[in-house]
Amino acid sequence: MRNHISLFILFLLPFSIIAQDWSGGIRAGLNYSRIDGPSELDLSGNSLERNTFSSGFHIGGMISRKLNSAVGLRGEILYTQRGTDYQYQGDSYFRFFTEGGAVASSRGTRFTTLRITNTYLDLPLSVFFTPGQN
């Protein structure tokens, strides 16, 4: 796979040097995201879970090609982090096994905080327009 990508880049390199319509670059930045869904409820109907925004980043490269003086195409490949900060506070129980193999349980209130981070490989393709160009 690496050889194919390297050959593709080497194939495009002479064309990008000759043609001024090609351009490329590096893209990096911050992401703020939240994953949300149905929440677990207590007996009164109150939510026991909470999802808040989490920060991540994205980094990658892009290549652009002008089709004419006003319109062009841009392709990117980005490594992206997205996620959420999850909190649970409510009734819970813990089940454990004794040395004799008997099952015992204990009830109480649980407070849990998790940072959930998912990583993605994004491949966006976009059309761009430069107004005022003829």
Number of helices: 1
Number of E strands: 6
Q: What best-fitting shape do the alpha-carbon axes yield?
A: elongated
Structural class: mainly beta
The H-and-E topology, N to C, reads as: HEEEEEE
Q: State the helicity in percent bands.
A: 10-25%
pLDDT averaged residue by residue: 84
- Count of folded domains: 1
Parts with pLDDT < 50 across at least 5 consecutive residues: none
Largest sheet: 6 strands, antiparallel
Q: What distance separates the N and C termini?
A: 41 Å
Which percent range describes the beta-strand content?
over 45%
Radius of gyration: 25 Å
Question: In brief, what are we looking at here?
Answer:
By secondary structure, the chain is mostly beta strands. Helices cover 13% and strands 60% of the residues.
Can you put this structure into words, describing what you see?
A hairpin with a 4-residue loop joins strand 3 (54-66) and strand 4. The protein is built from one helix and six strands. The protein has one domain. Strands 1, 2, 3, 4, 5 and 6 form a six-stranded antiparallel beta sheet that branches. It has 134 residues and is mainly β. It has one helix at residues 2-18; strands at residues 22-33, 49-52, 54-66, 71-97, 103-122, 125-129. The two termini are 41 Å apart. The longest helix has 17 residues, at 2-18. It is elongated, with a radius of gyration of 25 Å.
